[in-house]
Amino acid sequence: MKGLRGQSGYIMSKTFTRLSCVIAACLIAFTAVAQTPAPKAPTPSSEADFRAKRNAWTIGLESGQLEGLYPRLAADIQRSLDDGDNLRVLPMLAYGASSNLEDLLYLRGVDIAFTQSDVFEFFRTQKKIPNLQQRVHYIMRLYNTELHVLARPEIKTFEDLRGKKVSFGPAGNSATLTGPIIFQRLGIELQPLLLDHTSGLEQLKRGEISAIVRVVGKPIDQLAKLPAGTGLHFLAIPGMQLFDDIYTIGELDNKDYPTLIAPGEKVETIAVPTVLAAYNWPRSNDHFRRLDRFTRQMFAKWDKFLVEPSSPKWREVNPAASVPGWTRFSVAEELVKEPVAAGAQTPPTNSDFETFMDQRGGRGPRTKAQREKLFHDFESWRAKQGATQ
Length: 389
What we know:
Layout lengths: L1 H34 L8 H13 L1 E5 L7 H12 L6 E5 L4 H10 L5 E5 L2 H9 L4 H4 E16 L13 E3 L6 H13 L4 E3 L3 H10 L4 E6 L4 H4 L8 E2 L13 E6 L12 E14 L6 H15 L29 H7 L2 H4 L7 H10 L8 H21 L1
Parallel strand pairs: 1-2, 1-3, 5-6, 5-7
Antiparallel strand pairs: 3-10, 4-7, 4-8, 4-10, 9-10
């Protein structure tokens, strides 16, 4: 028994020793884990800093519908000016010129918008919204868009549309802005419809409506691809003197629409300058600070807009061109007075103008609309000359 108790004590002692070692090892491991710093989760303050950084230099740019040119130009701006967190442009699809101005006035997140020069006239006469010249300024005058009135074979003149069904495209697009101004000044009442562009064209082909109205830079692919022999044709605008306080003279020809206009023929219409507009924020406002940087970068990087993959429409633009009835954004006004810093063209010379006029058939008396078109054509001509040198 004595031997057995001794042996049992030895076993217990040995077991206790092993257990002590295991416990000690566990304590050491626990201590090591306790001393290893845990990964830090983002704190509310660091997330707020990140949010502020992402928003500090982000510009919301409202363009238009996919069928138009606005989204293409907005994409050019986004690509050319992108500088990460230092400047980020976010284009938005939207309805078009008149709706864009409403969004610029009232919708959060819209800093800049494409619209057109007659938008003030439309809002003054149709929506009765005052003081727009003080509330909205322009950063740059862009290309001209042309009024397209495509009609059935039996419709020969604008007067033939009196009382007829005419589609102006979806609500908010450019034609719903310009169209009412044109027909109101002509004194022609009709049945206006707001069909999407594809549906409107199909109903026109079937004879369910008499005409469609589009205001967009020529050529419109959808119309340029129409087959010959449909009888559809463009109407020439009558009485340009009724519109020369707002618009310039435009024209459509066979090069634009080979199946709709015979070689050598032209259809006289009106041209509407496109405007890159901004809300007139006070200089102390954070929105003004973003617009300031955007505008300076757009002028400084102007050469990027004159080469592919940017739209060739940019080569029709003179950054220093003015918009009648509008006030230029103050930062842009500063930049156009600094041609070298702004990347603008050098001032025109007499020989420049004489060369241009020689190519246009010389001088002669012109209406206000003709003079405005001539001036814009001269600026576009000079821009193209500079781009090819």
